[in-house]
Amino acid sequence: MPEEAALAREAWLNAGGEIHASNIVWPESVDLIVDALLGTGLQQAPRESISQLIDHTNSHPAPIVAVDIPSGLLAETGATPGAVINADHTITFIALKPGLLTGKARDVTGQLHFDSLGLDSWLAGQETKIQRFSAEQLSHWLKPRRPTSHKGDHGRLVIIGGDHGTAGAIRMTGEAALRAGAGLVRVLTRSENIAPLLTARPELMVHELTMDSLTESLEWADVVVIGPGLGQQEWGKKALQKVENFRKPMLWDADALNLLAINPDKRHNRVITPHPGEAARLLGCSVAEIESDRLHFAQRLVQRYGGVAVLKGAGTVVAAHPDALGIIDVGNAGMASGGMGDVLSGIIGALLGQKLSPYDAACAGCVAHGAAADVLAVRFGTRGMLATDLFSTLQRIVNPEVTDKNHDESSNSAP
Which leading EC class covers this enzyme (predicted)? Predict the structure, then answer.
């Protein structure tokens, strides 16, 4: 037995604690189970004897508090390769571990608590390779506007997509961009979509997508977003081929990513926003591999495609060169519904137009997106949340200098 473990054992016995064999019948009257089976060095599935203890612990009705990390959860990745403790609370120490913020972490950590153990001064002097971003950081990125600013100061954004039957995708992206503060938003889409989009959101400028309108729009635009509802037929392919040579910031999502997987290229002025399925196609691997180490595969996306990669999911990961890596610690299960990605594309596109760097725009956009959803989850729950519901609170989220007592109370109590 290691010396530290032996000392802890002795302290436990001296305090009146008891030690029993693991295969005895556990009493039903246990008030609390403390999980300290495995630590942060775990790199693989727990061995069988430990797995049996984990399963036994999970089947007991008593609440479980995990020390530092739930046993079976990998601290570096958030993967669960085998049995894992399903904690009600996790108390982690000194520093937050990446695996507590992404991957399967939210399914097993319960309520997460952090204590620096009095090492705040020392920690402040340490460099970290990974940043954690939450709603508190929005004021760093999104400053109050100058009173004399005008719409041209806040970005001219072109959004391309909305093939037959997918006008909703492009409409959500367009409105999200407006709600996130874009100065002017032009949508290029199928002619059949023009009237419905203008009726739903008259602040949008909507035109038929042709080679002439695309050429003129690319000259006009500060930022391009392409992909929502684009489709993978000739109509969408031709538009994407034209956009490839755009030299200003651009964001590719949805079908633009599926087409990129077929004809890969590397561009440093591009943000890509794949979900795990799209990321798997882009990297030629399985979704299971992507989810086994989300931070690693986000970096792989940057290495292969350049620019900034946003790997969406619980604990979204944002990666860029040189070695910029962030985990987005907002959002909830209500966001697992159609259209949420389209809204995110519009938000990030708008922030690119407001002169944030691609990495900052991606991080701030993901935080605003998740924080808006968290406010809704507190008010109404996660089941039944729609992508368009985010518009009701997004404007407040992207103006962090505004004090709104009712809204802020909801935000602060969000998961």
Answer: lyase
